[in-house]
Amino acid sequence: MGQRKSKIEAKPVNPKLFQRLSTRNLLFDNPAAEEKYSDYDFPFENLVFEGGGTRGLAYVGAVRVLEEAGVMRKIKRFAGASAGAMMAAMLALGFNSQEIEDFLQVDLSKEMLDHSCGYCSLLPNILKGYGWNPGNGLMAWFGNMLQEHTGNPDLTFSHMYKMFGVELCIVVTNVNQMAEEYCHVKTTPDMPIRLAIRMSMSLPGIFQAVEHRHKDYSYQDYYIDGGLLVNYPIHCFDGWWLSMDNKDAFLNRLFPLDRLAQLFEKTERFGTHNPKSLGMVLFSTFDVEFMHTELSKRLGDRKPVRPKTKLSKQRTKKQHEMNEAARNHEVVHKAVNNFLTVLAENNTNKDDKIELRELELVFKKMDQAGARFTQEDASVLFGENVDPIEVFAGLDKDDSGFITHQELVAFLEERGFNFFTQFLGYKRRPIESLGGFLETIIEAVMIYIKRVYIGEKDVHRTIGIDTDYLPGTDWKMEQDDKKFLISQGERAAKAYLREWVKVHKLTKTTEPDLNDITEEAETQSSTESTIAQRNRRSASSQSGSTSFVSVASSD
């Protein structure tokens, strides 16, 4: 104690220290404020990224929070699909959030959208390679990055595992096999990482499919976007399929052969829940995300402040139109619900046919105090001053003397109420172009498949990042749009860690030292961390061929 006191007295008082301490006190008084998450010990060792299109910068913000909390230094396994595969690969290579942010500031559309001759090449390229853009630019860009930092543009999963001691899983879709595949040091040790990324980012129609010949050269398969079948592979480190333990080696697991088909079932390969896995997903105001409600609860009611960008203004106008339509729909929804409830109560025969006398009872009860189906509801559905006889005649299209279920449903759909969409709980997606048509088809498949792979327990190991007005198809974002994505990622990660600390009743592992919160200490720690990561990659790059030959020869 005496020694610590003398150190503090000998050091000049930093006037910003008291300002920071006062701020901390205010933060702890505020239940929505942040504390120092590096004081806690989180259990995560696996990090998984959903495919998110052009919104990868949102992941940068979330990763930055995990770095500050000390979580990233414990991560041993990374996984991703589609655009999430690139984020997973860069983190596995040792890049920190700032370096990835710098990489993603580049206009990747110039690298990825590499078709020539504009729309004139669309049909020929699709007929020849099953996609518009060849994708060679993406392969070259990522290969150059690997060359610069590892000495080899075709670094394989095996090389990464031996050089960096981490596992990387990239999910791809094998079109010929009609199934997803998990590229990993255990399953595809000799596959170049950039090839797997190229496969996983091959959005059908936009990018040409990747034709890959297998080792025995007897056949070749076509590969496309891994996100088509498994866009959020949070399960990939569950179970034994990608486990590197000797007991889980394929030689020990894939027998007897007569049970091989059963052994390849998801529940067999990924059946054991891994509590050390943490994932991230992205969703916007315009996306369909069935975990949206639960994930949004962590963020509270505070709406993010949108920047004054072109995209923000366009989407704000569109959202106002959607909100107005939603309000109108809610009025109709309420009226329909009240009408059907009272109609069911007065359906004396308990069949699927409504007689005139039963409909008259519904309208008669409108005048009673506390009536559920009101004059206002009737006006919404049937107009002002409605008469039950006229309503019955309008609904009884075939003049059968009663209203059938089909006639009732048809009428309600005319009023804007669709039973099918209400059952699904999804928003209707308008289609106005060929691109929108293809995009909606792909999203429909992804949503359906996602329900197969994602369970309720996965919500609790998922950081949900609300990208608000930015869906995953914006190639022309302004700088403020990109900053907004980063801030939303930070906000989501902090909300998740805050909830984790509360739910799991974590206690601080160490008593924070007063000097730890000074700007000097924080700056030095951040600098040393960045230098250490760069030195590690620099050493690999400088040893270049030597390290690589030794790794290759050991194969």
From TrEMBL:
Domain EF-hand: 390-418
Taxonomic superkingdom: Eukaryota
GO molecular function annotations of the record: calcium ion binding; hydrolase activity
Biased composition (Acidic residues): 513-522
GO biological process, one term: lipid catabolic process
Domain PNPLA: 47-238
Coiled coil spans: none
InterPro entries the record matches: Acyl_Trfase/lysoPLipase, EF-hand-dom_pair, EF_Hand_1_Ca_BS, EF_hand_dom, Lipid_Hydrolase, PNPLA_dom
Motif DGA/G per record, residues: 225-227
Composition skew (Low complexity), residue ranges: 523-555
Active site: S82, D225
Motif GXSXG: where in chain: 80-84
Keyword hit for Transport: no
Residue ranges, annotated region (Disordered): 299-320, 513-555
Residues spanned by motif GXGXXG: 51-56
This protein's UniProt keywords: Calcium, Hydrolase, Lipid degradation, Lipid metabolism
SUPFAM superfamilies on file: EF-hand, FabD/lysophospholipase-like
Biased segments, Basic residues type: 305-318
The protein, known as: Uncharacterized protein LOC118423904
Species per Swiss-Prot/TrEMBL record: Branchiostoma floridae (Florida lancelet)
Upper taxonomic lineage: Eukaryota, Metazoa, Chordata, Cephalochordata, Leptocardii
Gene it is expressed from: LOC118423904
